[in-house]
Each structure stands twice: as C-alpha cells, then as structure tokens.
Amino acid sequence: MSSVTLDHVYKRFGNAKGVEDVHIHIESGEFFTFLGPSGCGKTTTLRMIAGFYFPTEGQIRFGSQEVTALPPHKRNTGMVFQNYALFPHMTVFENIAFGLQVRKINKTDTKERALRIMKLVRLEGYGDRRIDQLSGGQQQRVALARALVIEPQILLLDEPLSNLDAKLREETRFEIKRLQLELGITTIYVTHDQAEAMSMSDRIMVMQSGEVQQIGTPHEIYHHPVNRFVASFIGETNLWEGTVVGIEGDEVKVRIASGHVLSGLKQNASPRARLTEGETITMSIRPESVQESTVTEGANVVSGSVEMSEFTGACVNYTTMVGQEQLRSMSINLGRPVKQRGDSIGLHIPKESIYFAG
Ligand code: ATP
After folding, report:
1. 135-169, pLDDT tens digit by residue?
2. Using CA atoms, how far apart are residues 78 and 237, in angstroms rounded to an integer?
3. Residue limits of the ABC transporter domain (predicted)?
4. If 0-12 CB within 10 Å is exposed, 13-18 middle and 19+ buried, where does residue 343 land?
5. Considering the chain, what percentage of its residues have pLDDT values greater than 90?
6. In the chain, how many domains are there?
7. The domain that contains 326 carries what CATH number?
8. Domain limits at 218?
9. Same domain, 222 and 242
C-alpha cells in the first residue's frame, strides 16, 4: 500500500481550467474521496493519479516515488470506471484474469488469484457467465474484482455506483467499504453524492470549479464548513447572514435581520470567518439542531410563523418564517400537537450548533 501526494498540481486544457493547485497528502490505507458537483475537476484529478492525464504543473508521488510522467501501466493502480468498461464478449473469469495475462502471470497463478478475488467480491460460481448475462450490481463487482486482482498499491474508483438503483447503491457502498477495510488498500473515490462520501470516507476533499474548497473528515466537513458552498453542498443547512454585535469571552453575538440576537461559540468559526464587531457573517445552522421551544422568547430562541409543517412519524419538520428569513427545523417527535401553517412558533437554536462559515 502506498500514500499519494499531489504537490501543487494544475491541469489546463488549452486555455480552459481543469483543476488548480491541488495540494493533498493521502495516507497509506486511507479511504479518500473527491466530492463536488459535475465539472468541478474530480475526474481530472483522478485521471492524473491514474496516469491518463499528465499535470500541466506540479508533482505526483506514490510514497516517495515520483510518478508524475509515468504512463498508467507503470503505476500499479487499479481503476473502476463509471461505466465499468468490461469486455462484453468475455466471461467473468476472462475479464478478471485479463490484467494478469497481460502481466504474463502463469496460468496456475492466474486461476488461483482470479478465483480468490471472485470469492472476495462474492462472485463465486459466476466465472463462466458472460458479462451481458449479469445484473448491474454483478457487473460492478466484476469491475471491482478486475481492478483488485492485479494487487494494486492504490485503488481508484470513479463514480462506481452511479449506474445502480438506490437500494443496490447503498448495499454496494457497504460492500466496497468492507473490502477496503479487509484489504487495507489506499482508496481514492470520486463522487458527486454527499451521502456516499460521508458514509465511506476517512477524509473528503470538496471541490468546486476546479478548486479545492475544503479537506477534512466527514465530521469536520459537516460541522465546520469553511464557506457557504461547502455548508450547502453537504447535507441540508440554513444559511443566515448577520452582523457581529459583540464578543464576550468565548461567545459571539450576532444580530439577524429579524432583530433577534443569537449567541454562538468562537470555536465554531472557520479560519475565514471575521469575528470583529460590525462584520457581516454567514452562519450555518443544521435543521436537526433547531428544536421547537415551549417559549417564544429567551436565549437563542427565535419566533416566527410556520410556513409548512411535515410529520414523518419520528420527526416533525417545520419551515418557519423568522422575519423575512426561512428557517428549516427537524425536531424529534415528542408527541406535541403538530403546528400548522400560520401558527406562531418558538424555535431554540443551541449556541453550540451555530457555525460561522465566513
Ligand atoms: P463529472 O462529475 O461531470 O464527471 P468532474 O468533477 O469529474 O465532473 P472533470 O471531468 O474533471 O469534472 O472536468 C473539470 C473541468 O475540466 C471541466 O470544466 C471540464 O469541461 C474540463 N475538462 C475535462 N476534461 C477535458 C478535456 N479532455 N478537454 C477539455 N476540457 C476538459
């Protein structure tokens, strides 16, 4: 297994920007995800690691070995493509064994390794099937087996679940994570699906328009988004602007448009947030942290009028107008009557749950 370092890597396509200044160190054995919307540069970055693209600037290293200009077959990476890129006229066994034959591994070892990997991805007994006789989920596992059978140092996965239906996607993400933990293989995963990224990764790199926005654990990215883009791309959140009106010890007081003053904690500010009096600041408040209050006034309680309510059994979700601003909340159902559109409501926003995104 190997670590992967991208040292100030840039990729331009003519005059067009691909990615800009990607600077990361992925630890050996880490599950690392590139996350972002379409066109943000995830695939370009992955392709540079695989060797399908060469950087315009910067260096790529696997461990201490520089690989920046090496072609793909000299890098010892295994890759799973979005469309799997399997050979449709070959059997499952032939597809999996192909990479070993190319590497001139003898027949006995090829068979032994292919069978072992088929067992690992739960494809035992499918060796003689043709690819077009398999379900989407089974094809996905063949693609995974084909990438793993060459015993790569690094596994690269480019949106490997996007062709599967929702239920299978969830099952398969669990399978991939199981395999990765079992093999301890350094894995780089590309997706635009934040739930996938959050549930599988040790760390996530969030990208937008070819630029890295934030690198962190799922917990850090969710709870300490560095800017509005990250806060709104990862899960649901309320983004409110306010003016810093006071700082007292560990607490920051912020006045919002409705006139309410909220207290937050200094420690919940991203490095980009300017916590000086008079500054306008963006707050990220997750709906699940906002709870219905029995009062309409008090510390960190805002009052408003219910615009929409939704009863899901376990939860009561409200969209409330607080002045001109919307506040979405997701409260655990405590058996209180559900408020309806037009009812007034008090909502408590705990100070620990306000994040200053800058
Ligand atoms: P998607 O999720 O849609 O695959 P992505 O985040 O993987 O998107 P990339 O495919 O890496 O994004 O593209 C990043 C940028 O680089 C885009 O603006 C894209 O148009 C551009 N780009 C990618 N490959 C090429 C190429 N071969 N020639 C020219 N521009 C390219």
Report:
1. 888 888 899 899 989 889 999 999 988 877 888 88
2. 37
3. 4-234
4. middle
5. 66
6. 2
7. 2.40.50.140
8. 4-228
9. no
In short, whether 13's Cβ falls inside 6 Å of ligand 1 is yes
Q: How far is CA 319 from CA 48, 212, 308, 322, in A?
A: 44, 32, 5, 10
Please give the DSSP secondary-structure letter assigned to residue 336: P
Residue 65 has what pLDDT? 95
Q: How far apart are CA 228 and CA 238, in angstroms?
A: 10
Which CATH number do you get for residue 64? 3.40.50.300
**Contact indicator for 213, 207 with CB cutoff of 8 Å:** yes
Write the residue with the smallest CA distance to atom 19 of ligand 1. Answer: 39
- At 305, which amino acid appears? S
Tell me which of 182, 212, 228 is where a domain ends.
228
User: Are 219 and 291 members of one domain?
Assistant: no
**pLDDT (tens digit, 9 = 90+) per residue, 266-317?**
999 988 788 899 999 999 999 999 999 988 889 999 999 999 999 999 999 9
Residue-level pLDDT at 122: 85
Q: What is the pTM of this model?
A: 0.86
Model pLDDT, residue 169: 85
Q: Which residues contact 232 (CB under 8 A, 6 or more apart)?
A: 239
Residues of the chain with pLDDT under 70: 358
CA 131 to chain centre: 30
User: What is the ipTM metric for this complex?
Assistant: 0.94
Q: How far is CA 158 from CA 43, 46, 83, 97, 310, in A?
A: 7, 8, 9, 21, 37
Residue whose entry in the numeric block shows the structure tokens 């059994």: 313
Q: Are residues 224 and 253 in the same domain?
A: no
**Contact between residue 243 and residue 262 where contact means Cβ atoms under 8 Å apart:** no
Ligand 1 pocket, mutate which of 43, 83, 194 (most atoms under 8 A from CB):
43
Substitution candidate for ligand 1 out of 42, 159, 196, 206 with most atoms within 8 A of CB: 42
Helices (H), 103-135: 107-120
- Which amino acid, one-letter code, is at 77? T
